[in-house]
């Protein structure tokens, strides 16, 4: 099934039938992709938290089972849960730093309670995604992602010295250096499956150097059972909700929202990479994807391990290598991961990996995460206002991290818990975003019903917008025509829905330079306008009556984007103008 290139055409789309043998073979490849990050992320977090080997073995076992369950659930759609795509899931590296801080200061039971609360936050995010999308912008999530990467890097460098006391001083840097060197070489020059196997190759190289220093202990591997369930450590939830719980809750909430927003971005990429022909993104499936990840977070809290997170890079790599995007592959991945979780000997092998190897892996992972955050910020452009948000949030987040200022303000105990740079930077970024959005004096809003009888009110509204911007007559007519055709398209499709009434329609006009962004928010059930515009390119040049408004809308608007959520549809169009 594995191909030698990274761009095979899609042979099986998500809804198409997939033979069980194909699902299992591709599922084995998917499980191999997520095995290393699953074990390594958990091992780094648990070891850095100072927990014992019993807790470590259990956490890896639980993380594999949770990742398997969530990957399988994502392959289906039940009500508002599930993505209906191949969504490979691993423990979230973003939570490594906060797990270490929480377990060290308050214990594993407080960490477990906070992770359980994060489940509620993710499900709420999925429910209110149409509203929260304006707050957690790419600038906010990208800035927080970069701060997370910087805050976790000290853990990586501390792991380089995580060796027995009798080890020579040069052992840690030598092991970590070799691991990084091999990881970089494989990433730069390998292709196809060899590139995906880069983490394993780098780990083997680092372990070889560690063995040369006599730092590999084979007794743990020899004494481990071949199959079985590991010993259960002392787990539990701290329901006293003490001071440490409330002090750490803002950081957990922010990281959970960041994971939710990242899940949305990954879901968009997975949808687009799973089709032979491009389609508009169905945000109802994205909401289902976030909700299922919230269920995985609940399981992780009860099991006392890192919460899961979707990784589009692994999912798309698997699809590109095999050409198979059928959702049944998610079940195949889950079956293989369950078998790997029960294979105790394999877990014992992976848990003997030395600390410097784990540290090197984490260095590269956090470096990639930092770059990912910066790319997220640049996604929608970086104007002067966004530069101000990034600059202030980064400066305060990095400068006040573990600084005495918070202790001076809130005392040693509470201040020591509140001096987290990620929390500070996120609060500043969100506050600045809300402030800049509120002072946009040129933004206008109109509320009407989704009915052609509302056209005069819409036309007068758009005429006022164009007059305030001092647009010329041609641009004003273009803006009014675009608004009229958008209303007509939405109304026509809504009339085709059974039992349709006239829902509320909110129109917001936001000037951006020499362009106006019109946002139509309605509770409709129509087909995706963006998809219909794409289909018109392949149809006859003479449009039908139903297609006329769509063709006119495409003519007047620079861009048209339709986001379908559960219960809410948002159509965003951009109209260019001149004075």
Give unreliable regions as ranges. 1-6, 527-550
Say how many strands there are: 7
- DSSP summary: helix tally: 24
Mean pLDDT value: 80
Helix content: 55-70%
Structural class: alpha+beta
Largest β sheet strand count, sense and barrel closure: 5 strands, antiparallel
Q: What is the oligomer described by this structure?
A: single chain
Net shape: globular
Architecture overview:
- By secondary structure, the chain is α+β, with helices and mostly antiparallel strands.
- It has 3 domains: 20-380, no CATH class; 382-439, no CATH class; 444-576, 2-Layer Sandwich (Heat Shock Protein 90).
- Helix content is 64%, strand content 8%.
- It has 24 helices and 7 strands.
- The chain has helices spanning 20-48, 53-74, 96-106, 108-127, 129-132, 138-160, 171-189, 192-196, 198-212, 219-223, 243-273, 283-303, 312-322, 328-342, 344-351, 355-378, 384-399, 404-410, 412-418, 421-438, 455-468, 473-495, 529-536, 545-556, and strands at 89-91, 308-310, 444-449, 504-512, 515-522, 559-565, 568-576.
- Strands 3-4-5-7-6 form a 5-stranded antiparallel sheet. The protein has a two-stranded antiparallel ribbon with strand order 1-2.
- β4 and β5 (515-522) form a beta hairpin.
- α1 runs antiparallel to α13 and α1 (20-48) packs across α16 (355-378).
- The chain is globular, with a radius of gyration of 26 Å.
- The model is unreliable at 1-6 and 527-550 (pLDDT under 50).
Write a brief structural summary.
The protein has 24 helices and seven strands. The chain is α+β, with helices and mostly antiparallel strands. It has three domains: 361 residues, no CATH class; 58 residues, no CATH class; 133 residues, Heat Shock Protein 90.
């Amino acid at each position: 099934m594995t191909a030698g290139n990274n761009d095979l055409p899609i042979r099986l789309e998500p809804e198409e039938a997939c033979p069980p043998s194909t699902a299992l073979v591709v599922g084995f490849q998917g499980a191999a992709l997520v095995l290393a990050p699953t074990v390594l992320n958990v091992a780094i977090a648990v070891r850095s938290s100072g927990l014992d080997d019993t807790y470590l073995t259990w956490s890896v076992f639980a993380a594999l089972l949770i990742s398997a369950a969530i990957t399988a659930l994502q392959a289906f759609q039940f009500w508002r849960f599930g993505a209906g795509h191949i969504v490979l899931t691993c423990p979230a590296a973003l939570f490594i730093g906060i797990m270490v801080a929480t377990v060290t200061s308050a214990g594993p039971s407080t960490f477990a309670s906070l992770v359980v609360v994060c489940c509620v936050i993710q499900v709420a995010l999925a429910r209110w995604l149409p509203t929260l999308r304006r707050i957690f912008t790419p600038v906010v999530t990208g800035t927080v992602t970069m701060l997370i990467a910087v805050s976790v890097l000290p853990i990586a460098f501390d792991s380089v010295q995580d060796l027995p006391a009798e080890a020579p001083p040069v052992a840690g840097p030598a092991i970590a250096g070799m691991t990084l060197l091999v990881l970089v070489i494989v990433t730069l020059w390998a292709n196809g499956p060899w590139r995906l196997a880069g983490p394993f190759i780098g780990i083997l190289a680092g372990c070889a150097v560690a063995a040369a220093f006599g730092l590999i202990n084979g007794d743990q591997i020899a004494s481990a059972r071949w199959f079985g369930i590991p010993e259960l450590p002392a787990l539990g939830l701290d329901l006293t909700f003490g001071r440490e719980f409330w002090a750490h809750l803002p950081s957990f909430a922010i990281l959970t929202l960041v994971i939710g927003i990242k899940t949305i971005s990954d879901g968009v990429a997975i949808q687009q990479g799973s089709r032979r022909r491009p389609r508009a993104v169905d945000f109802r499936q994205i909401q289902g994807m976030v909700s299922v990840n919230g269920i995985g977070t609940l399981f992780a809290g009860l099991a006392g391990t890192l919460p899961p997170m979707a990784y589009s890079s692994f999912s798309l790599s698997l699809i590109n290598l095999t050409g198979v995007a059928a959702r049944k592959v998610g079940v195949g991945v889950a079956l293989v991961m369950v078998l790997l979780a029960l294979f105790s000997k394999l877990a014992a092998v992976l848990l003997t990996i030395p600390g410097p190897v784990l540290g090197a892996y984490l260095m590269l992972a956090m470096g990639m995460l930092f770059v990912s955050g910066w790319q997220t910020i640049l996604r929608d452009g970086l104007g002067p206002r966004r530069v101000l948000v990034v600059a202030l949030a980064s400066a305060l987040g990095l400068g006040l991290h573990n600084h005495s200022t918070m202790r001076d303000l809130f005392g040693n105990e509470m201040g020591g818990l509140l001096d987290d740079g990620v929390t500070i930077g996120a609060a500043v970024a969100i506050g600045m975003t809300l402030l800049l959005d509120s002072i946009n004096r040129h933004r206008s809003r109109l509320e009407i019903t989704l009915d052609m009888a509302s056209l005069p009110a819409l036309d007068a509204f758009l005429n006022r917008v164009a007059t305030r911007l001092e647009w010329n007559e041609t641009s004003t007519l273009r803006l009014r025509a675009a608004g009229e055709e958008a209303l007509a398209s939405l109304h026509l499709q809504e009339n085709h829905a059974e039992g349709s009434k006239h829902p509320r329609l909110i129109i917001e006009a936001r000037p951006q330079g020499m362009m106006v962004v019109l946002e139509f928010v309605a509770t409709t059930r129509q087909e995706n306008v963006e998809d219909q515009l794409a289909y018109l390119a392949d149809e006859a040049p003479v449009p039908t009556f139903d297609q006329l408004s769509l063709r006119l809308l495409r003519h007047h608007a620079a861009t048209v984007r339709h986001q379908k959520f559960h219960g809410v549809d948002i159509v965003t169009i951009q109209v260019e103008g001149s004075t």
